[in-house]
Amino acid sequence: MVWRRNLLKIRVFLVFVLIAVSLLSWMYATPTLGNILYYNLPDYNDYKKFPYKTLKASINPFRFKPTNNHWTPPRSISTGPESRVDFENLLEVSETLAFLVIKDDLILYENYLNGHTWTSTSISFSIAKSFLSVLVGKAIQDGYIQSVDQLVSDFVPELSGKPNAEISIKHLLQMTSGMNYFESRGVHNVFGLHARLYYTPFLKQELLAINFLHPPEQKGFRYKSGESALLGLALSRALQDKTITQYLQESLWNPLGMEFDGLVNLDNNSDGLEKMWCCIGATPRDFAKLGRLYLNKGKWNGKTVIPESWVEQSTRIDESEGSSSEYQYGWWIPPNDSGIFQAEGLFGQYIHVNPKTNSIILRLGKSRGPITREQWVNLFTSISESL
Predict the structure, then answer these.
(1) pTM over 0.85
(2) In 185-319, which ranges are E strands?
(3) Mapping DSSP to helix (H, G, I), strand (E, B) and coil, where does residue 341 land?
(4) DSSP state of 249
């Protein structure tokens, strides 16, 4: 009887081994699904999951200045007409990593939580779309792209002959191309297209397989990371012998005096394509420098980095050609006509810019916590308007 029980245990063990080997083989053979099952939901350390190219720190770093004239957060702060929150408690319960308030290049408030510091790297999520927008504007200035009206198929000829082959760079910047793409609540739907795009090592193939539901501009704006991903592919082709990372290094990382190394995630290690809708890694103060560039209308310490006209086009309210009044070229415009604009990312990554008070607010976190996106925007506005 004992040997029979042992034989049964051995058989059960072998079955489990066979299942495990089969599962691992299947995951290896289908790496996109394998990555989805292995990594599942995203987090702020996702830059460690994927291959990447390094952005080297500038040899002439720019540093925001400390000041004795600090901003002291009130115990209760407005998040809307009839709602207020305890500010310090909100930072805790929302798993905030970094919160900076900067005015006139002075750091008025700087707080790091949950093990994050001023030297810690985290992923940008969709703040990368704002970086991508800058690079597109720079590529137009440098002659790699003729204008925002140039057809995407000029750079991605695989689109020629397909429906919506007439989509332009502007359609992708404003997310009005008609692409059949749904965010599916971020990548929380692990079987959705958005998750596939995030985890695939075959990004170009996934992008070229996406269809279009209707002609560009017909249905207007709908937020779609797939359009930014396709724009990234077009930019990579437009740059010819340069990679996007090289272009980002020379166009932004060096001129803006980035103090620390950054990175851009790729879909794979061999001929990897930069994931420009989601995946730039940087430290908090370096992220804030993108806000400073736009706050100064494209100039950096008096030198033009990006044309002022591009900054204006990227952050103005424009509802023409199906565009949204709240979103332009990779930047969000709160619906209060106050001149404020911001970059936003999943889990409440924000670069909030208020030109009227010459201020920048940076917030990085693991989640938005108990308040909505709109309430975060109201909170930032309340702070920046009070400075």
Answers:
(1) yes
(2) 262-265, 280-282, 299-300, 303-304
(3) strand
(4) I
The span from the CA of 91 to the CA of 98, in Å, is 9
What does the pLDDT look like over 136-154, one tens digit per residue?
999 999 999 999 999 999 9
For residue 118 the two structure tokens come to 């001023």
User: Distance of CA 241 to CAs 53, 237, 262, Å?
Assistant: 16, 9, 22
Tell me how far apart the alpha carbons of residues 131 and 282 are, in angstroms, rounded to a whole number.
12
Percent of the residues in the chain that have a pLDDT greater than 90, as a whole number:
75
Q: Would you give the end-to-end CA distance of the chain in angstroms?
A: 81
Report CA torsion sign: 176, 202, 143, 250: positive
The answer to whether 357 and 372 are in contact (CB under 8 A) is no
- Given 3-state DSSP classes, what are the helix, strand and coil percentages for the chain, each rounded to the nearest 5? 40, 20, 45
Q: Which helix (H) or strand (E) holds 345?
A: strand 341-345
Cβ-count burial of 209 within 10 angstroms (0-12 exposed, 13-18 middle, 19+ buried)? Answer: exposed
Residues of the chain with pLDDT under 50: 12-15, 17-29, 186
Predicted confidence (pLDDT) per residue in 265-279, tens digit: 999 998 899 999 999
With b for 16 or more beta-carbon neighbours within 10 A and e for fewer, the 291-324 pattern comes to bbbbbbbbbbeeeebbbeebbebbbeeeeeebbb
User: Can you list the alpha helix ranges (DSSP code H) found in 210-338?
Assistant: 225-238, 244-248, 284-295, 308-315
Residues across the chain: 387
Query: Do residues 281 and 262 make contact, with C-beta atoms less than 8 angstroms apart?
Result: yes
Domains of the chain in sequence order: 56-386 (3.40.710.10)
- For 283, residues 6+ apart whose C-beta sits below 8 A from its C-beta are 118, 119, 120, 121, 259, 260, 262
Q: Which of 61, 70, 62, 60 is nearest to 106 (CA)?
A: 70
- Both tokens of 77, joined, read 């702060």
Q: Is 327:225 a contact under the CB 8 Å cutoff? A: no
